[in-house]
Design a protein that fits this description.
elongated; 52% helix; two-stranded antiparallel ribbon; 19 helices; 11 strands; alpha+beta; seven-stranded mixed β-sheet
């Protein structure tokens, strides 16, 4: 029995990146021998075991043979005769196909170290094309290591496009597509993940509502970048700077889906795109089985982001109506995330990347003024039933109105 550290742990160690998880491959062993040594079985499709002390994963070396469609359509051979090099050959990228022996020596049969040095994401073998999940994985790695200057080898991009052309992506499960997408959104440079999927045609398969945004123009006065798809990627970048929450980053990704439904004869105007986007977000989110909290914030972002952009023009009653509709009284934290997403939208435009966005703070302060109204005092004055809601709205509207007046007075004093 020989044990080797493999995959991401070797790759990240060579890159000088902290190693989070350590996976091992075992050559020359059997399930019985692993069990006899106290390892705990966890693998359903092939033999994987947990170390009795460290709980790290140890998988028997295996080869794979394509027998069906999708990323699960493989038969595995985990016999004692399978070599380390055969196990590494089935992996996706050369930088993931390295191993390290107990003695510390690196086993690198496919020149992964050279590709690390050259910052290239390259497939190990032509068997790459057999697993459609690799399209998403390579896109995720491109995003993850974008800050280090990594790019995808042209021949690997070509194979990714071929996988899409063969309609293999449709065989993936929604859960797996969302898992790869969520990891990319939560990591660095999620916009690169989306860009790569667009380049190879994968957006058309799983994200068609998003894919159509490229080529749709916006008014140059408000969007110097013009293209809605480009704007979306810029908003993603800004959201990443402002929040590490998946909900905020997903809202940034899909906030303008309504513009994909604007009749071309009305371009570059997109009047009413806010409500148009709601069903598109629901459809995309259902297809990917997106968590409810991500979907719900994205819907709020689509429907009401223009309200926040026009915050200084809103009447007190309109602001209160907005606060009621977004359910800020029960979900203030979600409302705060909504304002962060709106800030990302405002800054996700050419020349506006570092612009101040006072509207978000303005609306938050208006909410603060309204929330100071004490409902118990209203009840204490004898109001009941529908009268309580009526009085509450009246007093909250008055409080917001007073806030607006004070805000404008201070602004006038400052300008003088």
């Amino acid at each position: 029995m020989q044990k080797y550290l493999v995959g991401g742990a070797v790759r990240d160690s060579l890159l000088g990146i902290p190693v989070k998880d350590r996976d091992w491959v075992v050559v020359g062993s059997s399930p019985k021998q692993m069990l006899d040594e106290g390892y705990l079985p966890v693998g359903a499709d092939f033999p994987v075991f947990l170390h009795p002390q460290s709980k790290e994963e140890y998988a028997l070396a295996r080869t794979e043979k394509k027998i069906g469609t999708g990323y699960t359509g493989f038969s595995c051979d985990t016999s004692k005769q399978v070599t380390l090099e055969q196990d590494l050959l089935r992996r996706d990228l050369t930088i993931n196909a390295m191993a390290q022996g107990i003695d510390g020596n690196i086993i690198d049969p496919f020149n992964g170290q050279q590709d690390l040095a050259n910052k290239i994401l390259r497939h190990v073998s032509d068997a790459f094309i057999e697993d459609p999940l690799r399209v998403l994985r390579v896109a995720r790695f491109a995003a993850r290591y974008h800050h280090l200057g990594f790019s995808i080898a042209p021949e690997t991009l070509s194979l990714m496009q071929q996988i899409v052309a063969n309609q293999e992506l449709a065989n993936l499960s929604a859960e797996r597509v969302w898992l790869e997408t969520a990891k990319s959104l939560e990591g660095q440079n999620g916009q690169v993940y989306i860009s790569v999927l667009k380049e190879v045609g994968a957006l058309d398969v799983w994200f068609p509502e998003l894919a159509v945004l490229w080529g749709i123009p916006n008014p140059a006065k408000w969007h110097p970048e013009i293209d809605t798809g480009v704007h979306t990627l810029m908003v993603m970048q800004q959201a990443e700077k402002l929040s590490d929450k998946l909900t905020v980053r997903y809202a940034a990704l899909v906030h303008d889906l309504g513009k994909g439904l604007t009749p071309p004869e009305k371009w570059p105007s997109h009047h009413g795109h806010e409500k148009l986007g709601i069903n598109a977000i629901k459809t995309l989110s259902a297809r990917l089985k997106v968590p409810n909290e991500c979907r719900d914030l994205a819907i709020l972002m689509s429907e009401y982001h223009s309200h926040i952009h026009r915050a200084f023009d809103l009447k007190a009653s309109t602001i209160l109506s907005l606060l009621n509709k977004v359910d800020v009284w029960r979900k203030p934290d979600r409302f705060k995330d909504f304002l962060i997403a709106c800030t990302a939208d405002a800054r996700g435009r050419t020349h506006f990347e570092n612009a101040k966005y006072a509207q978000a703070d303005y609306i938050w302060q208006a909410y603060g003024a309204a929330s100071a109204v004490d409902i118990q005092q209203i009840i204490g004055k004898g109001y009941a039933g529908a009268q309580i809601k009526q009085q509450l709205d009246q007093q909250r509207t008055a409080a917001i109105g007073q806030f607006i007046q004070n805000y404008k007075t201070k602004a006038d004093e400052y300008s003088q």
